[in-house]
Amino acid sequence: MVPLSLEVKQIKRLLQLNKLRLQERMFVNLSIQVDDPEHISVPPLLLITFIDNIFKYGKVSNPENPALISINRNGAELDFKLSNLKKMNHAFEGLSMGISNAKARLSNFYGDLYNLTINENETHFELQLKITI
Question: Which residue from 9, 17, 30, 84 could staple onto 67, CB 3.0 to 4.6 Å apart?
């Protein structure tokens, strides 16, 4: 386990790296509302797995519909959400290995103390992860 503050630092680095790669044509809103991220532990690179999929399968070039990432603490619950448009002409349909592995890691670390919800259609992807901390 690593402090959430370290995971957030890695998320910000990933966003900076993709901003350079996409030559500033990246529209992602990141909101973090956690008072004590150094005192909350999460499995390393867990949240990065989900955010990386935004850049693999999502469309982040639309300023009117940016990808959204939020991390909030609500009492004894960590609430992670993301939503993004999907690439319309994406030829490769992934095997969902990243998400499958993340689900297995969540089960191993948290047992039944988490809830992962994924909703998607042809144009949009949404994910919400709630972890009891």
Answer: 84
Is the Cβ–Cβ distance between 97 and 84 less than 8 Å? no
- Tens of pLDDT along 76-90? 999 999 999 999 875
Contact 59, 86 (CB under 8 A): yes
The pTM for the full model equals 0.93
Q: Which amino acid is at 132?
A: T
Which option is the CATH number for 2-132: 3.10.180.10, 3.30.565.10, 3.40.50.300, 3.90.1560.10?
3.30.565.10
Q: Where are the alpha helices (DSSP H) in the chain?
A: 4-21, 46-57, 97-110
**Pair 46, 7: CB distance under 8 Å:** yes
Quote the CA–CA distance of 109 and 43 in Å, as a whole number.
7
Nearest to 52 by CA among 9, 85, 14, 78: 14
What are the residue boundaries of the structural domains of the chain, listed by start? 2-132
